[in-house]
């Protein structure tokens, strides 16, 4: 069985490919897809077939997925939702044309109600209509996205929050990667959507854990979405991006990310890494 992973020069794709190796897959049965293959020379040196693949170029994907049985489409970080969907659409079309037996896609929780989920929802709908067997992994938040807050706390700086007391799932990127690797190399039910959402916390819960880890009181201040957007702009984020992120936080304040599921634990075959352990591992 040949398994292909997109975006292997990115953080998640690299981890998934590494996990598949650790699970015992031979390099000859793994295919790494990268827009710039030279950046993945370390994988090529292990005997993995690293192929050029540009998600903006359907023809390159058609060639890259030739002879592949299963593939992981890691959602791209393209900020324009329409362009992002087209990238994903190109990949799905190429996978379908190559008659893959399974396509796994990394989505997000509740994309129907989150401003950041527009491309995810369009991709999910397109994938479901494509005719290819699929598994959708709806990932919650990566702990790594909270690294700025963790650094601020370690330096006794105030953490600003615009999600109120709403809860959201929080886990290490490595846990999400391991789950994707197990799905790719396992026998999970297809044409299903799995919610990878565990370690549900509010910001108050999260900062309590930080207080424990750093043995100091966390200074946290609840602000409005508009104030959060202004803060992001001051930190150097483009205004359109800041507004979308603030709107996403507003959706979370209204409960969009409050999704508790056993899917994560069942796929991993173990509990998700506890938050305290995960933060200590991250720092």
UniProtKB/TrEMBL annotation:
Gene3D superfamilies: NAD(P)-binding Rossmann-like Domain (3.40.50.720), UDP-galactose 4-epimerase, domain 1 (3.90.25.10)
Pfam (any one): NAD_binding_10
SUPFAM superfamilies: NAD(P)-binding Rossmann-fold domains (SSF51735)
Domain of life from the UniProt record: Bacteria
InterPro entries named among the record's database cross-references: NAD(P)-bd_dom (IPR016040), NAD(P)-bd_dom_sf (IPR036291), NmrA-type_oxidoreductase (IPR052718)
Domain NAD(P)-binding: from-to ranges: 7-149
UniProt-listed PANTHER family: NMRA-LIKE DOMAIN-CONTAINING PROTEIN, QUINONE OXIDOREDUCTASE 2
Record protein name field: NAD(P)-binding domain-containing protein
Organism the protein comes from: Limosilactobacillus gastricus DSM 16045
């Amino acid at each position: 069985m040949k398994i292909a992973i997109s975006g292997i020069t990115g953080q998640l794709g690299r981890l998934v490919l590494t996990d598949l190796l650790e699970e015992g897959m031979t390099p000859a049965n793994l295919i790494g897809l990268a827009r710039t293959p030279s950046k993945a020379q370390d994988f090529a040196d292990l005997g993995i077939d690293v192929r050029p693949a540009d998600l903006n170029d359907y023809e390159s994907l058609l060639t890259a997925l030739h002879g592949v049985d299963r593939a992981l489409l890691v959602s791209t970080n393209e900020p324009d939702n329409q362009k992002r969907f087209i990238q994903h659409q190109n990949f799905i079309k190429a996978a379908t044309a190559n008659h893959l037996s399974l396509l796994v896609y990394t989505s997000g929780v509740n994309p129907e109600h989150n401003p950041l989920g527009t491309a995810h929802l369009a991709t999910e709908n397109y994938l479901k209509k494509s005719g290819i067997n699929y598994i959708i992994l709806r990932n919650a938040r990566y702990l790594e996205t909270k690294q700025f807050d963790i650094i601020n706390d370690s330096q006794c700086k105030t953490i600003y929050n615009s999600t109120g007391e709403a809860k959201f799932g929080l886990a290490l990127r490595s846990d999400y990667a391991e789950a994707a690797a197990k799905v790719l190399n396992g026998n999970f039910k297809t044409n299903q959507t799995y919610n990878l959402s565990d370690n549900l916390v509010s910001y108050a819960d999260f900062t309590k854990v930080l207080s424990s880890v750093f043995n100091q009181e966390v200074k946290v201040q609840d602000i409005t979405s508009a104030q959060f957007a202004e803060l992001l702009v001051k930190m150097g984020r483009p205004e359109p991006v800041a507004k979308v992120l603030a709107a996403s936080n507003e959706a979370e304040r209204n409960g969009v990310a409050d999704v508790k599921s056993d899917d994560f634990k069942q796929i991993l075959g173990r509990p998700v890494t506890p938050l305290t352990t995960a933060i200590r591992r991250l720092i």
